[in-house]
Amino acid sequence: MEKINIKTKPEEEVKIDTPFIKLDALIKFCGEAVTGAEAKEIILNSEVKVNDEVCVQRGKKLFDGDTVEISNKIYKVSQRCEF
Question: Contact 55/45 with Cβ under 8 angstroms?
Answer without folding.
Answer: no
